[in-house]
Request: fold
Amino acid sequence: MAQDVGYEAVMARRNEIMKKAVGIDYNRFAQGPLAFDYERMMAEVGYSLDEIRSIQEANSVGHTPLIELKNITEVVRRTAPAGKGARIFVKDEAANPSGSFKARRASVSVYHAQAAGYKGVISATSGNYGAAVASMAAMRRLAAIIVQEVYDSRGLGQPEIVEKGRACEAYGAEVLQLTVGPELFYVFLLLLEETGFFNASLYTPYSVAGIETLGVEVAENMQDHEGRNPDVVVVTHAGGGNVTGTARGLRAAGARDTIVVGASVDLSGLHMASDVDFNRKSFTTGHTGFGVPFATWPDRADVPRNAARPLRYLDRYVTMTQGEVFYVTEMLAQLEGLERGPAGNTSLAAAVALARGMDEDRLIVVQETEYTGAGKHPTAQLTFARQNGVEVRRGDPRENVPGKRIVIPETPGQIRAQEVDLDRMRRSYIRNAVEGTGLKRTGQIELDFLREETNAPKDFVVAALSDLGVAVAE
Amino acid sequence: MGETVNEGSWVQVHRVILPAGQRAPQVPEETQRVPLELRAKGFLLGEARMGDEVTVRTIIGRELSGTLVAVNPPYGHDFGAPVPELLTIGQELRELLAGRRGGRGGAAGGGNGRGGAVGGDA
Reply:
């Protein structure tokens, strides 16, 4: 029976296709049109921490070293007021198979795919997650297909994504490379339907639970080193899984007072679906183009209910400029002997800025590094930026203009974290929730759900709903 | 026209998934004006010439069709060229750690607020 494979027809079948390809009946957790039981979904669908640890250990994932960045800490102290300059540590996640923390996510997704009897896995990702899925699929002898957004209409590939595609191929995956556009999702759905493979989405409970071990290890490593939990953990934030999984892991390990700070590269003004803007950015992940929309409406993902819900967990959210991240990438290589990144070093740039304002005895952890390589390197990206008409120069990073000018700081003291107003993001989330579901009035269930989703007090949620003309009945 | 490509060669095929003007409604104007294109690689089934409609067997064994556009295309990405703006950062930071004033030739902190504190508590 031939199905209609046209764009509209396939998009209309999305829920049916997804249900088969993920094997989760998300309706089970629904509590009305808006609310759903997030914790029950995580508990019932995912695996326990112990199970995840043993799955990951079987694939040599995790147990990465926590490294104190003593030279960078000293640089920070020389640019800080007396007594300030927290000790900076980094979790060297590049030591995972496939070179990033994404191996944690992929290990659980691919384990589950195999256990559930799927013959292969598909993932829609232009990032490190593709290589992670391909690597885990290789270990488990499953077929893997990775769908990437890589070219503009001139056929010019973003070097970082070209490299990630090469890495997927190195692990034996089939790589489908698309030009710019959100209709990648249509191609992805068609493939799921054609192959019957598992959707190794970044946003299932499997994938997000896979990151919880990272949060647990950060707390455990710090307990081993210093006998206490870290004061601050900085997380590069894009789709929200990294923040969500790490924070959940920290809590599971008892690090309830640790402040979780999300950090994204500021790409404001560049449209993520623009054929023109696409190759004018030097970061393809860890940026505000994902970080803001995914925090303010997580369910825009490729599964009906996103397990990554960063607003629940973010204590602070900051942005950094592209030039600042390139600068600290150079700093990490030149002062600590660790050539990593660049995108994963967004959180390191933020840590440098935050440490300056913290007391010397405080502990701040950057919870990831990622492998570096051809295309995926400051020299590759800055060469490419210049070829695409972007100005590159030294100066004050405040003069940075995404897509037009990359300013490499002149001194480490110029590295500043730009605070994002989380209350504004919370209101934006509530507006999206109301508009997305056509909600006219809320009862206790919706109110509780929105409070949990935004990690905000009841009064805040009620006021935001009232501003939108939504009646609140308790 | 063009040379024959042998069966079994590792090739790249190209396909238009959505033509220009038939893109998703939410995409911006500049994207709306161009097609959504797909490129994929596989072993060529049958002999063909560049530009022919062909079928390939992908590395995982699926069959895919498209226009033959390249034979064993190189990845082409590299490290670019050394970037002058990055070249001196390591030395600047080592000088800062050695207790000398950081920045470029004493330019540290000029009008940059806290940048002026460089080396202050060394």
